[in-house]
Specification:
With 89 residues, this protein is α+β, with helices and mostly antiparallel strands. It has three helices and four strands; from the N terminus they run βαβαββα.
Length: 89
């Protein structure tokens, strides 16, 4: 079983940000047996972390593990598209 590590970068507590969090958490919970760690970073509170990760727009979801590293920027509401792009099985 793969262990997944994600970073989700958001801007403030907007409806778009909250929607992205809800969608990602639902995707991860729906995958029974999936072991994951999800760090949620508000770029307004932690601009240094966003800069270190080269985040230029939000929302940005980065899959760090398992390799390869993948980024998904923008609309995260299409669950199947997100799962497919990030290789979540």
């Amino acid at each position: 079983m793969n262990k997944y590590t994600f970073k989700l970068f958001l801007t403030g507590k907007s409806a778009r940000s909250e929607g992205a969090v809800k969608t990602i958490k639902q995707i991860l919970k729906d995958e029974s047996g999936l072991e994951f760690k999800l760090d949620i970073i508000d770029v307004l509170e932690s601009p240094d972390i966003a800069e270190q990760n080269k985040v230029l727009a939000t929302p940005t979801l980065i899959k760090l593990l398992p390799p390869p590293v993948k980024r998904l920027v923008g609309d995260l509401n299409d669950k199947e598209k997100v799962k497919q792009y990030l290789d979540i099985q």
